[in-house]
Specification:
Blueprint lengths: L4 E4 L3 E4 L4 E4 L6 E4 L20 E6 L2 H4 L9 H8 L3 E5 L7 H12 L6 E7 L2 H4 L4 E5 L5 E5 L2 E5 L2 E5 L28 H9 L3 H6 L15 H16 L4 E6 L2 H4 L6 H14 L2 E3 L2 H4 L4 H5 L12 H20 L1
Helix pairs in contact: 2-12
Length: 327
Amino acid sequence: MRSVLEYHPVIGYRFIPSIKARILHESGGYLIRCNNLGFRCNRDIQIGAKSKKRRVLIFGDSYTAGEGVCNEVRYSDLLESMFKDADIYNFGLPGTGTDQQYLTYKTYAENLQPDLVIISVMVENIRRNVCRYRPFYMENRSICWLAKPYYSLNGKNLILHNQPVPPLPLRLEDLPVEERKYCDWGGRFKFFRALAKKLSLKDGLLRLGLYNPVPEFKNPSDPDWKLMSAILKRWISECTSPVLLNIIPLYHFVEGYARPTDYQDRFKEFAKETGVVVHDPLDYFLKYTPTERRGFRFPISDAHPTEKCHRALAESMGPSIKSILKS
């Protein structure tokens, strides 16, 4: 597959600026277009220049960047069609955690004078913040590992590591044994998940409700939650505009395979503590039938949001955004 990403010393990587490409996918393929800063957005950004329209910036991972769909059908672009008086810029980067998304804001967007910053937290990002290495597939499909920036928490102080980010890929055997636990394997129980998928047992096992995809939210004292919370608090405190936290659930919660109580409780507490507006689209998603909700992800192997899911997400976010921009 054609590479559409390039190394970045602060964030780890970004899209190649101004690139246009067609990406192979189980859906048949999709088109991407990137702006002058290296993000999937149809509009370039000039620092210091601002139109009469209000400026909304959205940050997130591949669910926000729009993996699997064209730019125009992502929730960011659909929101722009709903809010004619707003320019909405998508800063989503695939595979990133809250840490890299915050660094994206600091590097590219802090001085853009936004009227609203939307931080879209896909709940699995809590795990990515702790990781120091992300997988990268070579042309022969072998896996190598790329270092990423990460924060550690010393008391209440956030300490940034891997600056500049090491640029060269590593083999697993190149990493010290104690570092290998910081590789992002995409979740717990890697062997059993692969076996269940191979035997076509995955959905059946999920229906038993035995799998919690993000147990890090269960305890408010969990170190992974404390780290995510600290990054979000710093980010929000540095924003001069209103902030909307948009919590994107995994399909396990959308399709009723897992209970959302833990992560919902944490973000309710976070909203109460910080005063930030938190939008949870799950109740809106659950208005759809089980068959419709299964259509919110692709039918074969890609769990990213389909066009239908992006549309439902945009519709759910509309009232919260309208309320903030009105005030």
